[in-house]
Amino acid sequence: MSKRTAITAEAAESLAIQALTYLAAEPEQLGRFLAITGIGPERMRVVAREPNFLAGLLDYVASDEPLLIAFAAQAGIDPAEIERACAVLGRQRWQRDAP
Question: pTM (2 decimals)?
Answer without folding.
Answer: 0.80
